[in-house]
Design a protein that fits this description.
By secondary structure, the protein is α+β, with helices and mostly antiparallel strands. It starts with a helix and ends in a 7-residue tail after the last helix. Mean pLDDT is 89; it is low at 28-34. The structure holds ligand C2E and calcium ion (2 copies). One calcium ion (CA) is lined by residues 661-662, 682, 684, 718.
């Protein structure tokens, strides 16, 4: 500063001298051109020597002289730009130009006593240079009319940048103090250092457990931030993953070659990043909270200033991260129920609000279970609060166990709990959870040495049918809860009464089905499959029947599905297999012509590892020959998935036959068929139904037959009801057929009549 002042003083003296020389010349009216010439030359020399830029504006000719240093300051050589007023005009920042000219005007007119401005000018390389300009006028005559304006240029960019940096820094501290959102502060911090080091891009990552989460990186591409989000840190995981793991600074000069970036460079290089320096962000106790990263688009090591900035940037970010952590701790305290450790009422409201928003956006529904322990007040009053608390804690654990992964549970108050059942497919999903709650809560518990059997009542309401906002839906669930209590407690009730009835009916059927399977009350019927050319029965398909004394005949389509839901499908299949195979050996023993036995296996069971051992067991127990057993499975399981293919292989190794049921309507299986070792394709009834009227169906059947044959499978058609269908299938080259035309599924005793006959409809 003082150096500049010294120079100014010198210059001022020079100009004063010039002025007085000029004045003297005027006074004596003897203008000695020679003398003036000399002094101008002297001035020019002075200008050349100065380290500040100098300019001299002849107001009469409008010519401006710029000193070499003036030009150099803006990146130009001595002869590169013209000595004109317009040169200055094109270089000064547009926003500053009028203000500067205005100041000049005021000084020249005498309105202002001095001239001093700060302005931005453009460097040849495009960046901004902050300039402080001071000027002095040279006047002539008694009227002191200004004829020249001579000024200096000082580059104050560094100083200005430091000021801006301080301002930004203060702004960030202010944002921290005012509790502004962390993400916006992270962005500000990044911009602060990016402005200071042109070309630099900064990022802040937060550490949660061992996972790095995106904090702020306003200048890094979104795709990169997303790729890094969720990264697990470790001893060699990029720069930030490593620094947050080791707690030490990590300088990577070249991302392309550094082993720490081996697994990550493919994410960074496409976005131009070439070097990355990272400083762990540590809290006041020294715990690593995250990592600060500085990137450049070329390989580099930090200079002293950058290195210092890396330290201070991480320190600044740590203030914000530490604040976040503290707030999270406070939030956790407010959002967790002390006693049960479930979510608190406050959290419940927040969570349901956002669940409502999410469901509204995605057009989804969710069920809300309002749960109240039955007779809890009695426990509290008679056994004391400790026993009451114990029961609440135990109930909370049991209810939590009843929830699925996606469900959300909270304790609202006293003995009231709420469960939000999300991802619901139908209205029954909530009742399944409710039923599990009832079952689990009613397990006996010991309270002060006494056996006690708790119970609860549950009200169920659905978003959006029973309420579109939190108050309405809670009220609906509460109303339903009271209905459940009125109906005798220890049960659930829907807000929509019809649903309660339906759910109860369904529940009842499920109970009955469980019983029917356990007590083996189902029966089997058999439907023949015939050779299309000879009309001989070559196999029979076993089909399950359930005739309930109260509910009547229930379709297998319904009860098979239900058996899967209640986890009884394996027991059912085992019973079917044993009965059907046992029947087959009985027929054989009684001297009937040999036929194969086909059994349907539901997809979920087919993929179960239990299936192969079960088939082995059935074969050995019933004495059926493996080549007399055929399993039918739908297309759904026929996928290229390696595990599924292995099951096919294992089954084939046993020597049994396999058929793809309902072929043509499931997943397109052309690609997967290639890998499959099956014996039959059973074209679905869907195509047979309209093959006589729809040419497309006929074409499809014809292609399926051809393709099946080419791949070495036999082709069966199912659901044949008309002679014409049969004839056409015969023409198309189909191998075997099944349908009401030949025989409906019949009881075991009737099958013996059919065997040995020719069935051609
Ligand atoms: P699916 O395996 O496709 O069996 C054929 C169904 O079509 C049977 O119905 C059969 O009675 C019926 N059907 C056969 N020919 C004709 C016809 O010409 N016209 C008409 N309209 N229908 C015909 P069902 O017995 O009601 O069985 C329905 C489905 O239930 C079966 O379809 C099968 O997927 C499943 N299913 C039945 N029993 C069992 C079983 O024991 N285990 C498993 N996993 N599924 C079974
Ligand atoms: Ca079948
Ligand atoms: Ca079928």
């Amino acid at each position: 500063m003082s150096k500049i002042d010294d120079k100014e003083i010198k210059l001022r003296k020079e100009i004063e001298k010039l002025n007085s020389e000029l004045a003297t010349a005027h006074r004596t009216k003897e203008v000695r051109t020679n003398q003036l010439f000399n002094s101008e030359e002297r001035f020019a020399l002075a200008m050349r020597g100065a380290s500040d830029g100098l300019w001299d504006w002849d107001l009469e000719t409008d010519e401006v002289y710029y000193s070499p240093r003036w030009k150099e300051m803006l990146g130009y050589g001595e002869y590169e730009i013209e000595d004109k007023l317009s040169t200055w005009a094109t270089m000064v920042h547009l926003d500053d130009k009028d203000f500067v000219l205005n100041k000049v005007q005021k000084y020249l007119s005498g309105e202002a006593e001095s001239f001093e401005v700060e302005m931005r000018m453009q460097h040849k390389q495009g960046h901004e240079v902050f300039i402080r300009s001071r000027a002095f006028k040279v006047s002539r005559g008694s009227a002191c009319e200004p004829i020249r304006l001579i000024g200096t240029h000082v580059d104050i960019t560094r100083q200005k940048k430091a000021e801006l940096f301080d301002k930004r820094n203060t702004k960030i501290l202010e944002m921290i103090a005012k509790g502004k959102p962390a993400l916006s502060i992270y962005d500000e911090i990044a911009l602060l250092y990016e402005e200071r080091h042109p070309g630099m891009r900064c990022s802040m990552l937060e550490l949660e457990g061992n996972k790095l989460l995106h904090g702020g990186a306003p200048s890094l591409p979104k795709a990169y931030c997303e790729a890094v989000h969720g990264l697990i840190n470790g001893p060699e995981v990029g720069s930030c993953g490593t620094s947050s793991y080791t707690g030490k600074r990590v300088i990577v000069e070249n991302i392309e070659t550094d082993p720490k970036w081996a697994d990550l460079k493919d994410v960074a290089l496409p976005f131009g990043m070439r070097c990355c320096w990272s400083e762990p962000i540590k809290g006041s106790t020294g715990k690593v909270l995250g990592a600060f990263g500085m990137y450049f688009d070329y390989p580099a090591l930090p200079n002293k200033e950058q290195s210092n900035d890396l330290t201070s940037a991480a320190r600044l970010a740590s203030i914000v991260m530490e604040r976040e952590h503290t707030q999270k701790r406070i939030r956790d305290l407010a959002y967790t129920d002390e006693l049960t450790k479930l979510s608190s009422r406050t959290h419940f409201y927040l969570n349901i609000e956002s669940l409502i928003k999410e469901c509204a956006r995605n057009n989804r529904k969710f069920g809300l279970l309002y749960i109240d322990l039955d007779n809890f007040k009695h426990v509290n009053d008679s056994l004391g609060h400790d026993a009451g608390d114990f029961l609440l804690k135990e109930a909370a654990q049991r209810l939590k166990k009843a929830c699925r992964e996606v469900d959300y549970i909270a304790r609202l108050s006293g003995d009231e709990f709420c469960i939000a059942v999300s991802d619901v497919e139908d209205e029954y999903d909530a009742s399944h959870v409710a039923q599990r709650c009832l079952d689990l809560i009613s397990q006996p518990i010991e309270l002060i040495g006494r056996k006690f059997t708790p119970a609860c009542s549950i009200g169920i309401a659905y978003y959006p049918n029973d309420g579109k906002d939190i108050q309405t839906i809670l009220k609906a669930a509460d109303t339903a809860l009271y209905a459940a209590k009125d109906l005798g407690k220890n049960r659930y009730s829907y807000y929509n009464k019809d649903l309660t009835k339906k759910a109860e009916y369904r529940f009842k059927i499920q109970q009955y089905l469980r019983e029917a399977i356990e007590k083996q009350q189902l029966t089997l019927v058999y439907q023949p499959k015939i050779d299309i050319n000879t009309g001989e029965v070559i196999s029979v398909e076993a089909l399950s029947r359930w005739n309930h004394p109260e509910l009547g005949q229930i379709s297998p389509v319904d009860f098979i599905d239900m058996a899967e839901q209640i986890g009884m499908i394996k027991s059912l299949t085992e019973w079917v297999l044993k009965t059907a195979c046992g029947q087959s050996t009985l027929w054989k023993k009684s001297g009937l012509p040999a036929v194969r036995m086909a059994v349907n296996i539901s997809p979920s069971h087919f993929l179960d590892s239990d299936l192969v051992p079960l088939i082995k067991k059935v074969i050995s127990e019933t004495g059926i020959l493996p080549e007399d057993l055929e399993l039918e499975v739908t297309e759904g399981v026929v996928q290229t998935n390696q595990e599924n293919l292995i099951i096919f292989e294992h089954l084939k190794e046993l020597g049994i036959l396999l058929a793809i049921d309902d072929f043509g309507i499931g997943y397109s299986s052309f690609a997967s068929l290639k890998h499959l070792n099956v014996d039959f394709l059973k074209i679905d009834k869907y195509f047979i139904d309209d093959m006589l009227t729809d040419n497309k169906s006929k074409l499809l059947i014809s292609s399926m037959i051809e393709m099946g044959h080419n791949l070495g499978h036999e082709v069966t058609a199912e659901g044949i009801e008309k002679k014409e269908q049969f004839n056409m299938l015969q023409q198309l080259g189909c191998d075997s057929a099944q349908g009401y035309l030949f025989s409906k599924p019949v009881g075991a005793e009737q099958i013996s009549v059919l065997l040995g006959k020719k069935l051609t409809g």
